[in-house]
Amino acid sequence: MLCVLIAAAIAVRVRLGSFIADDSVFPTQPMVTARPWLSLFYLCWFTLALILVSKRLHLYAPIQLRNTLHDQRLTIQACFTAGLLLSGALYLARGQEVSRAVVLLTILFTAVLVSARRLVWRAMVYRRYDRGIETRNILVVGTGRVGQALRHHIESIRHLGFTFKGFVHIPGYDSDGIGNSPDVLGTIDEVLELARKHFVDEIFLAAPCERILVKQLVHQAREAGVDIRVVPDLYDGLAWNSPIEYIGQFPTIPLHRGQVPVPGMVLKRMLDIAASSVALVMLSPVLLAIAIAVRVDSRGPIFYLSERIGKKGRVFRCMKFRTMVPDAERRRADVLHMNERDSVLFKITNDPRITRTGRILRKYSLDELPQLMNVLRGDMSLVGPRPPIASEVKRYELNHLRRLDVVPGVTGLWQVQARQDPSFDSYISLDTAYIENWSLWLDIKILVRTVGVVVSGTGS
Question: Quick one: average pLDDT of 243-251?
């Protein structure tokens, strides 16, 4: 939409700037000097047509399914197809007062701007993939020649955005000699447990096996929310109506692909960026005052940086104002017997390691304000499950790992509904309920309720 608006503004400037001076060729008035509301209507129609055509050409599918040249060709095709639809609308509406020069230039500049935007976006995504960020974790079912070739192909082309986690052995179909390899994580009977344990996004079937086994695996993967695809040569006729998608130069057929609420996730990220940016600016005097209070109250750093486990097990450094004495971690063993929570959780209301300023900060959750920087960086979201520490995750059962499927949050359903509940089961069930019932409206309701929780001072 932004590209279309910029392209239209440039087109009008070019037309009015006498770059096109032959009024005998284009005798009508520039688009914006006609009725403004009508010009806006045509721009909206062109934008809508561009979005619909782009979706039809699968331009919003993952970029690893298209190489750069193919992506550029489809982008230009989408822009000119949308331009034809705009021209058709002008013809049917008898829009003779709209400058044909402006229309043609808008279409041309839109194609240039959208193509450039996609090139820049692709370069940014490739850079993130090279750093291991937002890659898709995969399991390869089958340890034979095809599976090995697929593994080497994926690892040799980093910008495909896949991270190989390991092989799954199929007894009776794979060579038994490779079953002891460290790259083999388990057998076909354990594939879904392995997918959960290693935060797998997609399973590649790269070995022939019985059709009934494949169908059963697809059914289980669908229930678990894991995508699954096969190598077409090995499963001829299994999915005859599915399109072939190339992973690099490797042809595959998707058997199941989960529906990701992309518009909702984009809006969630936009809300995170906007809200955290505004909050950091507005609360900067408060943050400065807290920093001074922490420094004056006790010796030690102002911020406490803790390694936490984020989405898909990624480790990041979580920021908080320091609320304990500097040697709090060393004294942790001395207060373990005072723990008031069960199982994995650890919390002490009257922890002797907490400073005087720290008690006030914790009571009103002010110690967590620096986490707005984590939100701005993308390590965390405003709303989501709280990020655990590594020692907690090591004690998780398999179903507990579900809470690591999403980006952790500063606040969440547990914080506003059962913050004082010592039960670990309640902690997990509320986080799981949030993940399974997520919506942007739910995030907004949790944020509103968080304000009340903070003001009432129910923090620990």
Answer: 81
| HSE-CB for 21 with a 13 A CA cutoff | 3
C-beta of residue 316 within 8 angstroms of C-beta of residue 407: no
CA distance linking residue 10 with residue 362, whole number of Å: 53
Q: Output helix, strand, coil percentages for the chain, rounded to the nearest 5.
A: 55, 15, 30
pLDDT in tens, 345-355: 767 777 778 88
SS3 249: coil
Q: Tell which wins on pLDDT, 225 or 23.
A: 225
Q: Which two tokens stand for residue 66?
A: 């298209």
**Judging by beta carbons within 10 Å of its beta carbon (0-12, 13-18, 19+), is residue 230 exposed, middle or buried?**
buried
Question: Which residue is associated with the tokens 């620096």?
Answer: 370
- The residue assigned the tokens 């009008």 is 12
Q: Please state the CATH superfamily assignment of the domain spanning residues 136-258 in this structure.
A: NAD(P)-binding Rossmann-like Domain (3.40.50.720)
Q: Over 60: is that where the pLDDT of 297 sits?
A: yes
Q: Are 148 and 166 in contact (CB under 8 A)?
A: no
> Residue 318: enclosing H or E segment and its boundaries?
strand 315-321
Is 221 in a helix, a strand, or coil? Answer: helix
User: Which residue from 117, 25, 92 is spatially nearest to 84, judged by alpha carbons?
Assistant: 92
**Structure token pair of residue 94:** 């008898």
DSSP tag of 31: G
Alpha-carbon gap, residue 272 to 354, rounded angstroms: 30
Residue (of 187, 207, 203) closest to 138 by Cα position: 203
Claim: this prediction has a pTM higher than 0.85: no
120: phi then psi, degrees, rounded to nearest 5: -65, -45
The C-alpha atoms of residue 349 and residue 344 are separated, in whole angstroms, by 16
Report the DSSP beta bridge partners of residue 138. Answer: 164, 202
**β-pairing, 315-321 with 303-309?**
antiparallel
Look up tokens 């990624």; give the residue.
Answer: 314
Write the Ramachandran bin of 139: left for phi over 0, alpha for psi from -120 to 50, otherwise beta: beta
- Which strand ranges, in their side-by-side order, compose the sheet holding 184-187? 184-187, 162-169, 136-141, 202-205, 227-230, 250-256, 245-247
Half-sphere exposure of 108 (CA within 13 A, CB side): 10
CA distance 57 to 44: 20
**What does the alpha-carbon distance between residue 66 and residue 74 come to, in Å, rounded to a whole number?**
10
d(CA 85, CA 44): 12
User: DSSP readout, 37-74?
Assistant: HHHHHHHHHHHHHHHHHHHHTTTTS-GGGS-HHHHHHH
Does the pLDDT at position 43 exceed 70?
Answer: yes
* CA 158/CA 163 separation, integer angstroms: 8
